[in-house]
Design goal:
By secondary structure, the protein is an alpha/beta fold. About 40% of the residues lie in helices and about 15% in strands. Strand 6 (about 195-200), helix 8 and strand 7 form a beta-alpha-beta unit. The radius of gyration is 17 Å and the shape is globular. The termini are far apart.
Length: about 260
């Protein structure tokens, strides 16, 4: 997997969401690079991680990333949260986990009401086969809808989407399958590291209530809701998200200087 490394200080691994790539984290990199060494991942079939037959298998990808990065705090956005959580459950090399708009289960169940219907991901899979680019653009709109900075965030995501090439269709289908089928809730009690759960107050894909409920399943956890935030709050509310992330880093690395108010 392609990993772009920049900055100085404690290691922070960043894993993007569905259809994007590590470049989506540019606002966080800009704000944190003088305090953290940032490892921005391109998942298989995304960005510069090119393979004729990409494999977006949860355990395999988590283990491959663990082999490529040092001991670090891991951050996962949306789909990327599943990989960050799985790595933390597999290895004590993960020092802490930060989740942005991510939960251990993305689809609704009788005991998990604050999520979307599984048909949402199934429909996106069908739509990809009929209208690839149009479906991706509709998904980006869902990422930003409701946010108080929706227009600027959508513009940023559209500029980022193809900046490292078109995402692989097979990898996108595998990602949708993970979103539709993964359930790591039962594993959260075994999470041995601190976790930070950041939701967007107006997120239409991952409910803040679902993130609150997920955080309650993990020891040493903290849930934070970004007022006015959508599914990608690190874009429109980058200063606030970066500050909270750095405070989380500082709980494990107190020598790191805080961001200026």
């Amino acid at each position: 997997m392609h990993i772009e490394v920049t900055g100085r200080g404690p290691a922070l691994v960043l894993i993007h969401g569905w259809a994007l790539h590590g470049g989506v984290f540019a606002p966080l990199v800009e704000r944190l690079a003088d305090r953290c060494t940032l490892y921005c991942v391109d998942l298989p079939g995304h960005g510069q991680s090119r393979d004729p037959h990409p494999s977006l298998q949860l355990d395999a990808c988590a283990r491959e990333l663990l082999a490529q990065v040092p001991a670090a705090i891991w951050l996962g956005w949306s789909l990327g949260g599943l990989f960050a959580l799985r790595a933390a459950l597999l290895s004590d090399q993960v020092q802490g986990v930060a989740l942005i708009a991510a939960t251990p289960r993305f689809v609704r169940a009788h005991d998990w009401p604050h999520a979307v219907e599984s048909s949402v991901f199934h429909q996106f899979g069908q739509d990809l086969q009929r209208d690839f680019r149009g479906t991706l653009e509709r998904f980006l709109a869902l990422d930003t809808i409701g946010s108080s900075h929706a227009r600027e965030e959508l513009r940023s995501l559209k500029q980022t989407l193809y900046a490292r090439g078109e995402p692989d269709a097979e990898a996108l289908q595998q990602g949708l399958h993970l979103l539709e089928t993964c359930d790591l809730r039962a594993d959260l009690a075994d999470l041995r590291v601190p976790s930070l759960w950041i939701s967007g107050q107006r997120d239409r894909l991952v409910s803040p209530a679902g993130m609150r409920d997920a955080a309650a399943l993990a020891p040493w956890s903290h849930h934070l809701d970004i007022r006015g935030g959508g599914h990608a709050p690190f874009l429109g509310h980058a200063d606030e998200v970066a500050r909270e992330l750095l405070e989380f880093v500082r709980t494990l690395h107190p020598e790191v200087a805080p961001l200026s108010p």
